[in-house]
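tokens incoming
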């Protein structure tokens, strides 16, 4: 702790008994003699009042119990950057080459050389001084002379109180391209453009848990002319505005763990020309609506390749339909949404998403293989075949005119018909109601390429998946399940073979009945 106050204590960040605060008042608080600091704690539960004492207001807090008065000697105003750097990476004068573990003395081989190497500050390029109480740059020019090669700097959770102090540090680091300022409370600069030279090469900036708003971000954007990645997680951001000419080089924007509830707020950033990755996980988003008609590509988010919407309130398929309008979307993360934990099987939900978004290649961090896409699209075509016919769909192309309501709900359906053909009656046959007599199917298992293999009669539950059937055949035929290819022929439609392409679907899903033949090839 320090007895001396800095020359400009108001607005400075301090740490006291392990808690962070901002100094809002310096002076007397009668009737108690002596100087007091009025502070607003980051943790409002740490305080006692809102900046008032005995009816007199000394400062203002955002929370009714966010303020306290403390003596200056209890407040630590921090240290300069170079001091913190030397403490973390410098040589320890009390170095001892041995240490005692239990009753044994152990020689520490190689540790001194490692520490000596770290002490060569001018060779370090990736630095972390997180939670080192850094408050300012220190003597002018010293950072540049001691460690000019730093390109990646973690300054998170320190005592930096303004962008001017950050700029004093960054200006001396000519190679700086990645900067983490998370968990600092920085006052806005009066003239952000005057600080742009300090961050001229900055490509990646993290401002998580800083309390910054989107409006403040836009105000500061002129400071970061070359920025490509911006992380703004956990800042209680609720609304967005158009960035104008800002962030023209931005390729990644992280808005996770904020309070955005209206998905259409995202349209405010839809014109960012190079934005490839958008992370909006753990917000409160329900839906989004692009300006184009169902089945048409939008001119919004023209470069967007990857979208993360995990942990939102998405419960309607219309959200997924809208994403198909993004012309370059290839990767989607959407776990922990009501849509993903609906009454449908999780695997069925996955297949529906794949079928609805044509260009998707990765879903929930798992690659979509061509075989899975084909199976998902064929299943989708079959699943909604009855609705398509009822809405005005027709196997005759000239007469195929499904209603607008159907196309709004299933914008890719006509596209899938063009790709695979219209579903026939057998494919869209309604499965029989589940009852005891329908639980077991008597099937003939035939190996058409192995004439010496006699047909096998088996009774299998219609709830059995294709994958489990392959496991059974592995035991019967001694052929690895991964090499098996299954199809079946219905007793009602001789000569037509239907592929069992999706291992996770059940026999009931494929409308298999008693007397059908299962063909096995490998």
């Amino acid at each position: 702790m320090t007895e001396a106050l800095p020359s400009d204590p108001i607005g400075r960040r301090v740490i006291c008994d392990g808690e962070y605060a901002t100094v809002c008042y310096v002076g007397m608080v009668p009737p108690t003699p002596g100087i007091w600091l009025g502070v607003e704690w980051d943790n409002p539960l740490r305080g006692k009042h809102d900046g008032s004492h005995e009816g007199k207001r000394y400062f203002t807090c955002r929370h009714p119990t966010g303020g306290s008065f403390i003596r200056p000697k209890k407040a630590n105003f921090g240290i300069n950057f170079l001091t913190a750097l030397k403490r973390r990476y410098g040589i320890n004068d009390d170095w001892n080459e041995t240490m005692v573990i239990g009753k044994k003395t152990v020689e520490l081989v190689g540790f001194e050389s490692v520490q000596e190497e770290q002490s060569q500050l001018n060779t370090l390029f990736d630095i972390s001084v997180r939670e080192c109480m850094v408050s300012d740059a220190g003597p002018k020019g010293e950072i540049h002379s001691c460690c000019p090669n730093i390109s990646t700097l973690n300054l998170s959770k320190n005592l930096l109180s303004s962008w001017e102090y950050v700029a004093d540090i960054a200006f001396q680091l000519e190679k700086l391209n990645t900067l983490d300022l998370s968990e600092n409370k920085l006052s806005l600069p009066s003239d952000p453009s005057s600080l742009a030279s300090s961050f001229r090469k900055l490509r990646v900036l993290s401002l998580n848990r800083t309390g910054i708003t989107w409006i403040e971000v836009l105000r500061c954007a002129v400071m970061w002319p070359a920025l490509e990645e911006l992380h703004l997680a956990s800042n209680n951001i609720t609304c967005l505005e158009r960035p104008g000419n800002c962030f023209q080089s931005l390729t990644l924007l992280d808005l996770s763990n904020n309070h955005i509830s209206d998905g259409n707020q995202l349209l405010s950033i839809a014109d960012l020309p190079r934005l490839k990755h958008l992370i909006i996980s753990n917000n409160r988003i329900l839906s989004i609506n692009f300006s184009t008609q169902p089945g048409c590509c939008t001119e919004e988010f023209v470069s967007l390749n990857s979208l993360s919407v995990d942990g939102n309130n998405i419960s309607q398929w219309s959200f997924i339909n809208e994403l198909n309008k993004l012309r370059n979307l290839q990767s989607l993360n959407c776990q922990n949404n009501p849509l993903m934990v609906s009454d449908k099987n999780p695997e069925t939900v996955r297949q529906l998403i794949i079928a609805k978004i044509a260009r998707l290649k990765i879903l929930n961090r798992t690659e979509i293989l061509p075989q899975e896409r084909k199976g998902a699209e064929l299943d989708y075509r079959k699943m909604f075949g009855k609705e398509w016919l009822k809405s005005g769909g027709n196997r005759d192309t000239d007469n195929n005119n499904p209603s607008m309501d159907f196309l709004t709900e299933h914008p890719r359906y006509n596209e899938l018909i063009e790709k695979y053909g219209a579903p026939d009656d057998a494919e869209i046959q309604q499965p029989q109601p589940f009852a005891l007599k329908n639980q077991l199917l008597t099937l003939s298992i035939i190996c058409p390429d192995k004439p010496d293999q006699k047909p096998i009669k088996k009774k299998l539950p219609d709830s059995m998946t294709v994958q489990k059937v392959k496991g059974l055949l592995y035991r019967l035929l001694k052929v690895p399940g991964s090499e098996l290819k299954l199809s079946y022929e219905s007793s009602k439609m001789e000569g037509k073979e239907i592929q069992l392409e999706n291992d996770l679907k059940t026999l009931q899903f494929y409308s298999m009945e008693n007397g059908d033949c299962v063909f096995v090839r490998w």
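note: The longest helix spans residues 370-383.
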